[in-house]
Amino acid sequence: MITRHATGFLTRESARPARRKAADWAALLAIGAVQWPWLLRSLDGGGAAEREALLRRLRLPDEALPTLGSWKADAGFLRLVIDHIFSRRPRLVVEFGAGATTLIAARALELVGGGRLVSFDQHSDFAAATRRRLAEYGLHAEIRAVPLAPLAGRPGLWYDHGPLPRGIDLMLVDGPPWTVHPLTRDGASSLFGKLAPGGTIMLDDAARPGERLVARRWRRDWPGIDFRFVRAGSKGTLLGTRRA
After folding, report:
1. pTM, whole model, 2 decimals?
2. What pLDDT, on a 0 to 100 scale, did the predictor assign at position 50?
3. Residue 75: which residues within 8 A CB-CB, separation 6 or more?
4. CA 77 to chain CA mean position, Å
5. What share of the chain is helix, strand, coil (3-state, %, to 5)?
6. Please, what is the end-to-end C-alpha distance for the chain in angstroms?
7. Could you read off the pLDDT of 116-169 as tens digits, one per residue?
8. More confident of the two residues 222 and 35
9. Angle between helices 22-34 and 209-221 (to 10 degrees)
10. What is the pLDDT of residues 21-57, one digit of tens each?
11. If you write DSSP's letter for every residue of 43-112 in order, what string do you get?
12. DSSP assignment of 13-32, as one string?
């Protein structure tokens, strides 16, 4: 979410969370018990100089990104998004977890000549707030509020996004939060077949134990995608590029 205020330590739960299975609670408690150092580190979203450098590159005013960190994207992840859009000029960007990254991606796409940005979030008020914030800067994205739902064969919940086109050039995965299930972002792999040749996946928070397990699954199940971990910012990012 884009907010003018600092965010708290824990994520916000869905208004109507799905009933968790006993195994889901066990996974949440087991991984949650060991990942507190990563969560504490994530409170640092990057210094003022890093934030100001991002805004200068995008020619945005200081108030466009008043705070970063916690469960919002940090400066390192946002810098990777800008670098990629500036160098690769994607035509279709699909994002899971709306917020600061939506603003950054929309502005970067505008500066390189345009591109379609489709963003999903499970909170309708977050989605509406992000739309309003983009409108303040004359930006647009297709921001859709959708529920989280079980996905066959995968842990946790995933966005009930409906049909999506093939030819995704860039997929940004910054949700759902780990409190849904430590491995819940594995749901993104259900869409890897829709990546364009040379298309890229960016998984935020990749240094956390749950995301490391997700990355291990992806490397095993998707040999046609080259994955690498980038220690950018306080949370780390997993980059995956589909071979042409």
Report:
1. 0.83
2. 87
3. 45, 46, 47, 50, 51, 54, 68, 233
4. 9
5. 40, 20, 40
6. 34
7. 999 999 999 999 999 999 999 999 999 999 999 999 999 899 999 999 999 999
8. 222
9. 110
10. 666 656 666 666 566 565 555 555 467 788 889 999 9
11. T----HHHHHHHHHHHT--GGGS----TTS--HHHHHHHHHHHHHH--SEEEEES-SHHHHHHHHHHHHT
12. PPSSPPPPPHHHHHHHHHHH
For residues 5 and 11, give the distance between their C-alpha atoms in angstroms, rounded to a whole number: 15
Is the bond preceding 176 in cis, omega lying within 30 degrees of 0?
A: yes
3-class DSSP state for residue 126? helix
pLDDT at 16: 43
Q: What is the mean pLDDT of residues 217-229?
A: 98
Alpha carbon of 191 to those of 152, 164, 234: distances in Å?
13, 9, 27
pLDDT of 198 strictly over 90: yes
Q: Which residue, chain included where needed, has tokens 């884009």?
A: 2
Q: Between the CA of residue 2 and those of 30, 63, 134, 181, what are the distances in Å?
A: 30, 11, 9, 23
pLDDT for the residue 49: 84
